[in-house]
């Protein structure tokens, strides 16, 4: 019967149209970027965020069979730099990733997308053993897909997946996870929303699942249990799949299709120019577009989850946090120099009213560490995992990281990460300090790991005061 009341079908159409309207009005109008795209970067400018049609609402009412694709639509590459690739409709069959396309000339070199996922060691044979084969990834045409997958249509793995194809080697470590792999995952993914404002809000849907193809559930957590804290705080609904799940899906003998997946592969990322300069795989996705506030989404989620409230921060009160390793037993300051540094910092506190915290991370709970980092203006310490907390600092004009090395020694880990967040880094060799662009070559001289690292506490304190009063900026 036709009447004036709308049918369910008409109502559905109106709802879908409204959803589209809301989506397009709230999306970025003209994504602009402060970053120059490197020749290695591919960005498919259309379709940068999942359309609402792909969202969970499209599954209501749930129709049996809707979770399967009709035919084998082509895979598209949404964004790519070596080691970090976002695909739409990537097929997985018998444990192999299939790119289905009749335009294979537009597909990046397979070596720059995936590897065998073997642990990373030096030497030409080791490098060769990580080069991908047809077992890891194949690029096939639509006709071939029909023949290969046969009558079995592909089952959708919906939403956004993050697939980490690395072994546990660099994962079970707070720095390498939170400040490198997870950091890089979000930097690559958030390239799809280059307009993230300072408060971190974004229309990008959070990843629904993390897939590890080469490690089991017992091999991604770190000894301090920070990896799971950070990941679950950032994405409370994320679920995990491990190598058992990967093999299980393979053994089922049916094709799967990942609606949208970000594939991260450390060996593949090592083929990039940015990696060669910094030895940081997370530096590679910085060749993609991105908001200067790209990390705010994650930082805010994690520090809020950890109990930090902006009200906890007294206005114009600057916080200096020295992360001491003096009881750690490895890579420590000369004890006298440590004591002198603490004295000088306390003098600053007494003279200028700065808050000074001298802490050993192993004595703080996770919540205490994260809350303190969230309030810290200047973080300092000997090169080491404790400095990973710098990723939770609020980047402001004064935010600074000071890292003490054994003279002659240098590594990019915290230096690069600090700059990636728009903060200032100073390295120290005893009574000498250095900052970009005048940083030394990477070196691990004898003494680097030792307990006789010198530091000039007066120099550190002077630099703290300069940074907090922005002295070098008032000069010009
Ligand atoms: C599935 O992969 C295994 C290797 O793990 C291989 O031996 C087998 O031939 C493959 N099966 C099909 C149907 O491709
Ligand atoms: C975040 O900032 C944007 C743009 O400045 C604003 O439109 C939005 O309402 C803010 N969101 C929150 C949760 O404050």
TrEMBL record:
<dbReference type="GO" id="GO:0016020">
    <property type="term" value="C:membrane"/>
</dbReference>
<feature type="domain" description="Glycosyltransferase 61 catalytic">
    <location>
        <begin position="174"/>
        <end position="397"/>
    </location>
</feature>
<keyword id="KW-1133">Transmembrane helix</keyword>
<dbReference type="GO" id="GO:0097363">
    <property type="term" value="F:protein O-acetylglucosaminyltransferase activity"/>
</dbReference>
<keyword id="KW-0732">Signal</keyword>
<dbReference type="GO" id="GO:0035269">
    <property type="term" value="P:protein O-linked glycosylation via mannose"/>
</dbReference>
<keyword id="KW-0472">Membrane</keyword>
<keyword id="KW-0325">Glycoprotein</keyword>
<dbReference type="InterPro" id="IPR007657">
    <property type="entry name" value="Glycosyltransferase_61"/>
</dbReference>
<protein>
    <recommendedName>
        <fullName>Glycosyltransferase 61 catalytic domain-containing protein</fullName>
    </recommendedName>
</protein>
<keyword id="KW-0328">Glycosyltransferase</keyword>
<dbReference type="InterPro" id="IPR049625">
    <property type="entry name" value="Glyco_transf_61_cat"/>
</dbReference>
<keyword id="KW-0808">Transferase</keyword>
<dbReference type="GO" id="GO:0005783">
    <property type="term" value="C:endoplasmic reticulum"/>
</dbReference>
<dbReference type="Pfam" id="PF04577">
    <property type="entry name" value="Glyco_transf_61"/>
</dbReference>
<keyword id="KW-0812">Transmembrane</keyword>
<feature type="signal peptide">
    <location>
        <begin position="1"/>
        <end position="26"/>
    </location>
</feature>
């Amino acid at each position: 019967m036709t009447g004036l009341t709308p049918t369910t079908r008409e109502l559905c159409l109106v709802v879908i149209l409204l959803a589209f309207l809301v989506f397009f009005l709230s999306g970025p109008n003209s994504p602009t970027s402060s970053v120059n795209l490197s020749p290695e970067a591919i960005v498919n400018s259309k379709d940068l965020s999942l359309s609402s049609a792909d969202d969970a609402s499209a599954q209501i009412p749930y129709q049996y069979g809707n979770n399967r694709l009709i035919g084998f639509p082509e895979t598209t590459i949404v964004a790519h730099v070596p080691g970090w690739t976002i695909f739409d409709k990537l097929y997985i069959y018998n444990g192999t990733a299939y790119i289905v396309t009749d335009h294979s000339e537009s597909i990046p070199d397979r070596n720059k997308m995936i590897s065998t996922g073997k642990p990373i060691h030096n030497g030409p044979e080791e490098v060769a053993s990580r080069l991908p084969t047809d077992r890891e990834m194949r690029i096939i045409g639509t006709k071939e897909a029909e023949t290969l997958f046969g009558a079995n249509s592909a089952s959708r793995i919906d939403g956004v997946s993050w697939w980490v194809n690395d072994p546990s080697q660099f994962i079970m470590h707070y720095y390498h996870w939170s400040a490198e792999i997870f950091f890089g995952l979000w930097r690559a993914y958030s390239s799809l929303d280059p307009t993230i404002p300072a408060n971190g809000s974004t229309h990008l849907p959070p990843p629904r699942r993390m897939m590890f193809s080469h490690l089991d559930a017992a091999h991604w957590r770190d000894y301090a249990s920070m990896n799971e804290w950070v990941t679950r705080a950032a994405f409370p609904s994320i679920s995990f799949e491990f190598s058992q799940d990967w093999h299980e899906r393979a053994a089922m003998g049916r094709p799967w299709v990942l609606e949208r997946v970000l594939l991260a592969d450390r060996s593949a990322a090592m083929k990039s120019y940015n990696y060669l300069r910094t030895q940081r795989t997370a530096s590679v996705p910085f060749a993609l577009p991105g908001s200067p506030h790209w990390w705010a989404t994650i930082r805010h989620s994690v520090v809020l989850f950890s109990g930090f409230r902006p009200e906890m921060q007294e206005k114009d009160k600057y916080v200096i946090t020295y992360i001491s390793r003096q009881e750690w037993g490895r890579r420590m300051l000369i004890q006298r120099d440590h004591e002198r540094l603490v004295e000088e910092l306390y003098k600053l506190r007494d003279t200028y009213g700065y808050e000074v915290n001298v802490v050993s991370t192993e004595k703080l709970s996770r919540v205490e560490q994260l809350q303190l980092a969230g309030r810290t203006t200047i973080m300092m310490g000997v090169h080491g995992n404790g400095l990973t907390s710098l990723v939770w600092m609020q980047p402001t004009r004064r935010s600074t990281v000071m890292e003490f090395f054994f003279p002659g020694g240098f590594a990019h880990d915290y230096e690069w990460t600090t700059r990636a967040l728009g903060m200032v880094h100073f390295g120290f060799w005893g009574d000498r300090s250095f900052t970009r662009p005048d940083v030394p070559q990477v070196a691990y001289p004898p003494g680097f790991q030792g307990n006789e690292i010198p530091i000039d506490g007066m120099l550190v304190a002077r630099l703290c005061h300069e940074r907090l009063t922005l002295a070098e900026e008032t000069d010009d």
